[in-house]
Design brief:
Blueprint (H helix, E strand, L loop, with lengths): L1 H24 L11 E6 L2 E6 L7 E9 L10 E9 L3 E4 L6 E9 L2 E2 L7 E2 L25 E3 L8 E7 L16 E8 L3 E3 L10 E9 L5 E2 L6 E4 L11 E2 L15 E5 L6 E7 L17 E6 L3 E3 L8 E10 L5 E2 L6 E5 L7 E7 L1 H4 L24 E2 L7 H6 L1 H4 L5 E7 L2 H5 L4 H17 L3 E5 L6 H8 L7 H13 L4 E2 L26 H13 L11
Parallel strand pairs: 24-25, 24-26, 26-27, 27-28
Antiparallel strand pairs: 1-2, 2-5, 3-4, 3-6, 6-7, 6-8, 9-12, 10-11, 10-13, 13-14, 13-15, 16-17, 17-20, 18-19, 18-21, 21-22, 21-23
Helix pairs in contact: 6-8
Length: 541
């Protein structure tokens, strides 16, 4: 028995020694290998796939965000996440965020290869929307199919064109002169339920889509024309479609959720219900008896939850269309869900408090559910989003005890007052609210880090929201930001957001004149990342 154990142990150490030799001497020349991955998409699920090296290994996948070069930091990429996988594939986000990926193969004793060349996500730089749903002979469309595509950064709305044949020339910004059937610009999200009943004589038609800006100017080109094979006998969708296509995996959602969907053709009123467990009946017509919350809204494709959802667990939600009498049109949608992870015991490292600029959203039509419009997405550290759309400086103060204290962040990024700034609220009232937030932070051992308020663009605000801006906003902004710059901890973001005349919020950074769009949110995060030294460590227990 002793001899058996001796020889078993000897063989084991010889094997381990051989593995150590192979890996540390790079006998197989794996250090020279640059893992090359390609992006594959199927029904909205996107994966990176690559060939496995000729050696047993697992993989480290580093996710980076490309920086904007704003400020003094010259780093081109910011590491935001590291994960490991045992298979030569990795699921990635389809959101239009400048994500880059580097893959490293690992063996028993460490890295076998050098990190790969950066692999760019194709969705941020796309010149045209990329269709998600494809209707082929094997999977034909009904007479009222949902046409869905990946969103384009800063798009306010989309134009969809139906054609009898592929266009004379792909791409471009002009409608087809020869094969045009119909088109619509009344699409304010990345999907549309088409009505093909008047084209039922066609076995196949084609569709394409392009993004438009605030003044309906083109953003990029039309997508490549997609065939739409029609089956007149196919079941017509009878429920809204939860819009969860461009989610960002493993990133924190705001504590005030937003529920969004692809609307149904001809339906103007919707109800969302929220549950803490799956509904008793899928695709029914009645409210679930155990619903935790519900809200009804008309003529929009998103509902903003008025309550914070910071408590750990999985939440389920669904949406239904309603007729004029409040009866369900068709059935409830499929169930969507989101998970809130338990907060770490003691202190959270950082949280962001503020109005819609913090909550997220941009380009008028994109809600905070699109995480590319949240500056917290681009931070190099964990930061909970405590923003709430519509907040004034005073309502932000009023909810401090409810939303901030239970989480007890060591650091609180504070940006609020823009809605008060554009209204007739005096500057001293806004400063008073900010100072009260500062005092609450100090009382509870939270480091308050103020961000200077951004300039406004009244002309754009009028175009987007049909509201006037207080003509004294510049004077008020100067007073408020002077107070912020007198504080112990602040980050001065205001100077980077003016137009060339140093007059208003740069329209290249904000479609609606109030909320920074994707590049504006990236710039905010870059400036915060460069001032990481202002953030305190979590206090020891």
């Amino acid at each position: 028995m002793k001899q058996y154990l001796f020889f078993t142990g000897l063989i084991f150490f010889i094997v381990i020694g051989c593995i150590f030799f192979l890996e540390k001497t790079d006998f197989l020349h794996l250090r020279e290998l640059d893992i090359s991955a390609k992006v594959y998409e199927e029904d909205g699920t996107v994966t990176l796939r690559w060939e496995r090296p000729a050696y047993p290994c697992y993989y480290r996948v580093d996710t980076y965000i490309k920086t904007t070069g704003t400020g003094t930091d010259k780093a081109e990429f910011e590491l935001v996440k590291t994960e490991f996988t045992t298979t030569p594939s990795y699921r990635i986000s389809s959101a239009p965020i400048p994500f880059y990926y580097r893959i490293t193969a690992y063996g028993m004793f460490g890295a076998l290869t050098s990190p790969s060349t950066e692999i760019a996500s194709p969705y941020f730089a796309a010149q045209a929307p990329i269709p998600i749903y494809h209707y082929t002979k094997e999977h034909p469309a009904s007479l009222m199919p949902f046409l869905v595509w990946h969103s384009i950064p800063n798009a306010v709305l989309y134009e969809v064109e139906l054609l009898s044949a592929p266009p004379e020339q792909e791409g471009g910004i002009a409608l087809s002169t020869k094969y045009h059937l119909t088109s619509t610009r009344d699409v304010f999200t990345n999907g549309w339920q088409a009505d093909l009943r008047k084209f039922s004589s066609h076995k196949t038609i084609y569709w394409r889509v392009r993004a438009l800006g605030l003044k309906q100017e083109p953003i990029g080109e039309f997508s490549a024309a997609e065939p739409l094979v029609i089956d007149q006998n196919a079941a017509i969708p009878d429920r809204p479609l939860p819009n969860i296509f461009d989610q960002v995996m493993n990133f924190h959602q705001p504590i005030y959720p937003v529920y969004q969907w692809i609307p149904m053709n001809g339906v103007h009123t919707y109800e969302v219900e929220l549950l803490t467990e799956k509904p008793e009946l899928d695709h029914g017509t009645k409210p679930d008896p155990h619903r935790a919350w519900a809200q009804t809204i008309s003529d929009v494709n998103a509902i903003y939850d008025e309550y914070a959802r910071p408590y750990a667990g999985t939440y389920y939600w669904r949406v239904r269309g309603l007729d004029a009498k409040g009866h369900t049109v068709g059935t409830w949608s499929d169930v969507a869900s989101f998970t809130v992870n338990p907060a770490p015991s003691g202190h959270v490292y950082a949280a962001a408090l503020g109005d819609s600029i913090t909550h997220g959203g941009g380009a008028i039509s994109s809600s905070p559910a699109f995480l590319e419009y949240s500056y917290t997405t681009y931070l190099s550290f964990e930061c909970l989003n405590l923003g709430r759309s519509g907040d004034t400086s005073h309502t932000t103060l009023e909810r401090f005890d409810q939303d901030v204290l239970p989480l007890h962040p060591a650091n609180l990024l504070i940006l609020t007052g823009s809605n008060s700034l554009r209204a007739d609220t005096p500057a001293q009232e806004i400063i008073k609210d900010l100072d009260a937030i500062r005092k609450k932070c100090s009382l509870h051992g939270i480091r308050p880090i103020f961000l200077t308020l951004l300039p406004l663009n009244p002309e754009r605000i009028q175009l987007a929201f049909h509201t006037e801006t207080d003509p004294t906003w510049k004077m008020k902004l100067s007073l408020i930001n002077a107070w912020i710059r007198s504080q112990e901890y602040y980050i001065d973001i205001e100077p980077y957001f003016y137009d060339a005349k140093w007059s208003v919020l740069d329209p290249l950074l904000s479609t609606d004149g109030l909320h920074p769009d994707v590049n504006g949110k990236r710039m905010m995060a870059d400036l915060i990342n460069q001032h990481r030294d202002l953030l305190s460590d979590i206090p020891e227990k």
